[in-house]
Design a protein that fits this description.
Blueprint (H helix, E strand, L loop, with lengths): L1 H13 L14 E6 L4 H13 L1 H6 L4 E6 H6 L2 H5 L5 E3 L7 H9 L4 E3 L22 E5 L1 E2 L10 H4 L4 E2 L2 H13 L4 E5 L18 H9 L6 E5 L8 H9 L6 E3 L7 H6 L6 H14 L4 E8 L6 H14 L3 E6 L16 H24 L5 E9 L5 E6 L4 E5 L8 E9 L4 E5 L1
Parallel strand pairs: 1-2, 2-3, 3-4, 5-8, 8-9, 10-11, 11-12, 15-17
Antiparallel strand pairs: 6-7, 13-14, 13-16, 14-15, 16-17
Helix pairs in contact: 9-10, 10-12, 13-14
This protein binds S-adenosyl-L-homocysteine and iron/sulfur cluster.
The site of S-adenosyl-L-homocysteine (SAH) has 17 residues, from strand 11.
C-alpha cells in the first residue's frame, strides 16, 4: 500500500510542478513514506533522516517530510526528535500535500495527522496523465476494525472504509487506458470490502472482481491482504470461475496454536483456517497459498510454536512472510509477559527453514510446466525480460523489450532461490 500511496503523492506533487528524481542530492523535497508495523521499520526512519542532514546544509531550500504510519503514530514528536523535518503527514491526509507544500515553502513547519471527514481519493490528482508499468496497485479499502492484539493498523490507518464501486472501476479503467494489464486490489482487510454501489446497496469483493473482469484490456486481477474470517463463499467461487482472477492467495494465519490465536484476538481457530484452505483448494486446486506468521508472541510456549509448524506442514505454503513479534506501544500485547529474544530467534530460524523448503518444493514443481507470464521490464542482464507468472513467481527469459506489457507462454526450465527461468514458446 505504501508503494501505491507513494505513487499517488508523487502524482499530486507533479501537478504542482515537481518532477521525480532518483537522486536525493537533486531533490527540492524529500518525503519519506514510512511503516509502523514493527519497531525496526519505525526506527529506520530516524537513521534515514540523519543521512539527509548534509543535503539540507547544501540546499537550504530543501524540504523534508515524513509521511505514512510513523507520521500518524508519532506526529510532532518526529520534529522534536529530528528538527530538520519540515512536514509530518498521516496516511489519511495525503490529498492536502499541495497546500501544505505551499505553506512549508514559507518556512512554516506543519503536522497533519487528523482523520479528515472528506475522502482523500476525491482530492488526489487524477490517474490519467502518467505512463504506466503493466502491473499496478489500486487501493479499494483502508483501515481495520479487527484489533488483533499485536497490531498498530487500526490506530494508524483508522477504521475500516471501502471506496465506492464506481470510483474503483473508473480508476481501474484509467489505469487500463494507460497500458496496465494487471491490477492488484489493495486493502488492510481487502476481502472485508463492502463498497457502496448506490445509496443502500453494497458490493462484496467478489462482486467487484466480477465487475472489473468485464474491463477490456485488463487481463489479470489479484487482491491483498485478506483475513480468514472474511473469505466469503462468493469469493471462493470467484477463484473457481473467474478467468482473470489469478491463482494466488495471501491469507495470513499468524499462529497455529488456538491458545495464541485467541490471545491475539484473531477470532478464528487453526482448524477453521485449515478447513478454509481446503475449500479454497477445492475451488481452485492449483492455487498458491501465501501466509504471514509471527513467532514469539507473548506467552507462546514450545508446544504452541510446534502447533504453528504443524499447521504449516498441513497447509503447504508457496510463499510466506514471517516475523518475530515486535512490541508496539499502545497495543494490548505490549503490556504482556514477553518471550526472550533468543527464543524468538531460534523459533524464527526453524520456521523460516520449513517455509523455505516448502517454497523451494513449489518452485521446483513448476520446472517442466508451461506458465503464463506478464512481462514487466527488461532484466539486469542484456537480452533478458522479466515478469510474473499467474502464481506470482518472478520469471526471466531471453527476449526483447517488445515483450514488456504482454502475457506469453513460458516453459520453465530452472528454479533459482527467488525466481524461475524459462523459454518463450
Ligand atoms: N491485515 C492483515 C495483515 C496486516 S499487517 C491480516 O490481518 O492478516 C502485515 C503483517 O505484519 C501481519 O500479518 C503480521 O504477520 C505482521 N505484524 C503485524 N504486527 C506485528 C507485530 N507487532 N510484530 C510482528 N509482526 C507483526
Ligand atoms: Fe492488523 Fe490485520 Fe489484525 Fe487488522 S486484521 S488488526 S490489519 S493484523
Amino acid at each position: 500500500m505504501n508503494v501505491y500511496d507513494t505513487e499517488r503523492m508523487s502524482e499530486s506533487l507533479q501537478t504542482e510542478g515537481y518532477v521525480p528524481t532518483d537522486s536525493a542530492e537533486d531533490a527540492d523535497m524529500i518525503l519519506l513514506n514510512t511503516c509502523h508495523i514493527r519497531e525496526k521499520a519505525a526506527e529506520k526512519v530516524y537513521s534515514e533522516l540523519g543521512r539527509f542532514k548534509n543535503l539540507k546544509s547544501e540546499n537550504p531550500n530543501l524540504k523534508i517530510g515524513v509521511v505514512g504510519c510513523v507520521a500518524q503514530a508519532e506526529g510532532e514528536e518526529i520534529i522534536r526528535r529530528q528538527p530538520l523535518v519540515d512536514l509530518v503527514v498521516g496516511p489519511q491526509s495525503y490529498h492536502k500535500l499541495p497546500s501544505l507544500e505551499r505553506q512549508i515553502k514559507n518556512g512554516e513547519k506543519k503536522v497533519e495527522i487528523d482523520f479528515p471527514t472528506e475522502d482523500k481519493f476525491d482530492y488526489l490528482a487524477k490517474r490519467t496523465d502518467i505512463r504506466r508499468a503493466p502491473a499496478a496497485f489500486l487501493t479499494i479499502q483502508e483501515g481495520c476494525d479487527k484489533f488483533c492484539a499485536f497490531c498498530v493498523v487500526p490506530y494508524t490507518r483508522g477504521a475500516e472504509v471501502s471506496r465506492p464501486v464506481e470510483k474503483v472501476v473508473s480508476e481501474a479503467r484509467s489505469l487500463v487506458d494507460k497500458g496496465v494489464k494487471e491490477i492488484t486490489l489493495l486493502g488492510q482487510n481487502v476481502n472485508a470490502y463492502h463498497g457502496a454501489v448506490e445509496v443502500g446497496t453494497q458490493f462484496t469483493l467478489a462482486k467487484l472482481i466480477w465487475k472489473l473482469e468485464k474491463i477490456d484490456g485488463l487481463e489479470r486481477i489479484r487482491y491483498t491482504t485478506s483475513h480468514p474470517n472474511d473469505m466469503t463463499d462468493d469469493l471462493i467461487e470467484a477463484h473457481a470461475d473467474c478467468r482473470k482472477l489469478m491463482p494466488y492467495l495471501h491469507l495470513p494465519v499468524q499462529s497455529g496454536s488456538n491458545k495464541i490465536l485467541k490471545r491475539m484476538n484473531r477470532s478464528h481457530t487453526a482448524e477453521a483456517y485449515i478447513n478454509l484452505i481446503g475449500s479454497i483448494r477445492k475451488a481452485r486446486p492449483d492455487i498458491l497459498i501465501s501466509g504471514d506468521f509471527i513467532v514469539g508472541f507473548p506467552e507462546e510456549t514450545d508446544d504452541d510454536f510446534e502447533d504453528t509448524l504443524d499447521l504449516i506442514r498441513t497447509v503447504g505454503y508457496g510463499q510466506s512472510y514471517s516475523f518475530k513479534y515486535s512490541v508496539r506501544p499502545g497495543t494490548p500485547a505490549a503490556e504482556r509477559k514477553q518471550v526472550p529474544e533468543e527464543i524468538k530467534n531460534i523459533r524464527l530460524h526453524k520456521l523460516q527453514k520449513l517455509l523455505g523448503q516448502q517454497q523451494k518444493t513449489v518452485q521446483q514443481s513448476m520446472v517442466g510446466r508451461t506458465v503464463r507470464v506478464l512481462f514487466e521490464k527488461t532484466g539486469r542482464q542484456s537480452g533478458q525480460v522479466v515478469g510474473k507468472s499467474d502464481y506470482l513467481h518472478a520469471v526471466h527469459v531471453l527476449g526483447d523489450q517488445s515483450k514488456v506489457g504482454h502475457v506469453e507462454d513460458v516453459l520453465i526450465s530452472r528454479s533459482n532461490t527467488n525466481s524461475l527461468e524459462g523459454k518463450l514458446i
